[in-house]
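Hi V.,

You were right to ask for the full record rather than a summary. Here it is.
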Amino acid sequence: MGGKKKLTLKQMERASEKKDEAGTKRGGKSSGPGPEKKAPGITPPDLKSDKVIGEIKKMKAVTPYGVASRFNLRLSVARDMLEELAQKGIIEYVSGSKSLKIYKPHD
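Predicted structure:
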C-alpha cells in the first residue's frame, strides 16, 4: 500500500520542537488569535437614505452579491432589499434566473 507512514511519538515531538524553534527565530510570530471577523448584518440599511440610494445608483449592474458586499449584508437580506427597491421604482429588473437577478439603476 502506498502513502506516507505514520510518525512515531518521538518523531512527532522532534518535528514540533523544530517548528517552535523556527517560529521564534524568524520573527517570533505567535499562534494567537488572528484578526476578528465581523459577521454580516441582518438588518438592511435605511432605504430612504440618500447615501444608500446614491451608492446603488453608482453601480452599473446591481446584483444581490454586489449589494451584500458593499453594505456588509447577508445575501438573503440584499435580495429582499433589491426587490423592495424595484417595487419603489428606484431600480429596474433587467435579467436573471431563479437564483440570480440583475437590476440596473432607474434613469
